[in-house]
Amino acid sequence: MALVPVKKREGEQTSLARLHKEMDDLVRGFFGDWDMPMWRGASWPAVDVAEKENEFVVKAEVPGCKPEDIDISVHGNTLVITGEKKQEEEEKKKGYYHVERSYGSFRRELNLGSEVDVTKIDAACKDGVLTITLPRSEKAKPTKVKVKGS
What we know:
- This protein is mostly beta strands.
- The protein is about 10% helix and about 30% strand.
- Strands 1-2-7-6 form a 4-stranded antiparallel sheet, with no helix packed on it. A 3-stranded antiparallel sheet has the order 3-4-5, with no helix packed on it.
- The longest helix is centred in the N-terminal third of the chain and has 17 residues, at about 15-30.
- It is flat, with a radius of gyration of 24 Å.
């Protein structure tokens, strides 16, 4: 069976495009303007990874997390960041309230591409940003070779 392209007039949507738009409208209509990062395919926490000559520097956004609620481990070339953002106790009084902040546990795994010296890893959390410095292991550091002339 061969697929035959369907000719459409300029500005006309295909059935699939119309269905996609209708589903988006349905979800937006039900959930309103809620910000749901998991629907956008985003991972939490958001991270930046910088590769330098002798180390990797990972910065992760962890607003509202206390250092004691974050665990960091390295398995081979993989950095694993786990933790939990705990919900504050609220006193509910008469009336309505609105909650947008997210709470719960998280886990991020990042493949660093080379081994790190696990004895020299440093981590600090300040102003909602977790900074992890992972020095490369000696055998993973680039080696420069001098080329001799004849």
